[in-house]
Amino acid sequence: MAVVHASSSICSPFRSAPTVSRDLRTFSSPCIAAATLLRRGLRCSSVCRPGKCFASSDRIHPRIAASSAPVMEPFRPEVASRVFTSVEVDLGNRSYPIYIGSGLLDEPDLLQRHVAGKRVLVVTNSTIAPLYLDRVVEALRHGNPEIYVEKVILPDGEKYKNMETLMKVFDKAIESRMDRRCTFVALGGGVIGDMCGFAAAAYVRGVNFIQIPTTLMAQVDSSVGGKTGINHPLAKNMIGAFYQPQCVLVDTDTLKTLPDRELASGIAEVIKYGLIRDAKFFEWQEKNMQAMLARDPNALAYAIKRSCENKAEVVSLDEKESGLRATLNLGHTFGHAIEASFGYGKWLHGEAIAAGMVMVADMSYRLGWVDSSIVERVLNIIQKANLPTAPPQMMTVELFKSTMAVDKKVADGLLRLILLKGPLGSCVFTGEYDRKVLDDTLHSFCKS
Ligand SMILES: NC(=O)c1ccc[n+]([C@@H]2O[C@H](COP(=O)([O-])OP(=O)(O)OC[C@H]3O[C@@H](n4cnc5c(N)ncnc54)[C@H](O)[C@@H]3O)[C@@H](O)[C@H]2O)c1
Ligand SMILES: [Zn+2]
């Protein structure tokens, strides 16, 4: 049985891979952006308008996989709309940028450069539409009179992440004559992103799509990496496709309207990156949790950037999840069991995986793979983030076992898990663990 080890310190192939380099890619003005490229002898492939310049070396230096921006830039609202960071997901000729910054919804050039064809279908939901749909449509149309933009507004909620709702996207696409060269734009959280991406993968066997994630969960995780899909009543995310977007546009200002509970849910995925491969990031989170919860723009921007860098590195090394990518599912086997058994949407995804990560830490400790200080730190940071540290009371050992039996990580009847092993920031993906220890953990978290 193969065991995949992962940790940024022990075996982060990113740090040693000769083909992957780092580059300063936080541009704060046209001059800085262009000058940075020129100094490096690079051609500026930016889309420039008076006062605006989105320089990018994408086409010049396609193997850049991550940026190293200053950690905490002073927040200057007057220039905020011109400051952004770009992290590249390196997948050869399917590489794409993740733009991260404040005010990016009002930057038409950035969006338009990734639109293929002249027909666009924006997929969103009834909560996000009144907040951001007009701005996105305006950004698509601005100075671009030939473009035809259609919208489909889906009902809001995880319980609608299903085949019936997906059909509404296809209905609108066919009614509005979306052709092979059209672009689907996902405007929303992970539910919209996953569904729109799957629709784009399947519609006429594949059209372009763009992710505009508006929740922290989507900005740090679901919009990046090309996993798309819907739920089956018996198992979460069971039907889907790997399908990469043309770009991901993260306007950090959208987090201002996000409810607190949703913000905390996204923080669960941020914590996950620290635990599986980035001990320094975990330490940063321990010190900056309050700032993130208080929506300090710099703290959130850094958390998003570092999370995207971690995800981009993992995805570029293992796009189709043959091993390493599975580590991004830390806590998800327990978490998905909670979501499916409790009823989709009752607990948010991040809440379920937060409890799942505590269970993983417990099991890893029982196996003797981590020391008690790691269990304590996991518990503390999850408590600090106002996330649950145990499954809901209705969860029984039997419920866990029956839902975990249909987990996507079951291979030949054997449930493989992501477990912590070694120092902080290290984990393994393995089916080689004592089954009794899994039972012990389940019994210690469930009444029956
Ligand atoms: N594809 C992947 O790799 C991946 C990774 C992680 C999670 N996911 C999936 O993502 C989903 C969870 O995503 P989520 O947490 O974003 O949930 P979500 O999409 O349901 O959004 C959460 C809620 O916030 C609302 N909302 C979104 N943006 C808002 C904003 N800016 N202001 C106010 N309200 C806003 C939404 O309408 C919704 O009510 C799950 O289905 C999960 O399986 C996928
Ligand atoms: Zn997740």
From TrEMBL:
* Cofactor(s) required, per the database record: a divalent metal cation; NAD(+)
**Pathway(s) where this gene product acts:** Metabolic intermediate biosynthesis; chorismate biosynthesis; chorismate from D-erythrose 4-phosphate and phosphoenolpyruvate: step 2/7
Top enzyme class: lyase
Its cellular-component GO annotations read:
chloroplast
Is Amino-acid biosynthesis found in the keyword set? yes
EC nos: 4.2.3.4
**Which reaction is this enzyme known to catalyze?**
7-phospho-2-dehydro-3-deoxy-D-arabino-heptonate = 3-dehydroquinate + phosphate
Q: Name one GO biological process term.
A: aromatic amino acid family biosynthetic process
> InterPro entries under this entry?
Dehydroquinate_synthase, DHQ_synth_AroB, DHQS/DOIS_N, DHQS_C
Record-linked HAMAP family: DHQ_synthase
| Listed name of the protein | 3-dehydroquinate synthase, chloroplastic
Origin organism of this chain?
Answer: Apostasia shenzhenica
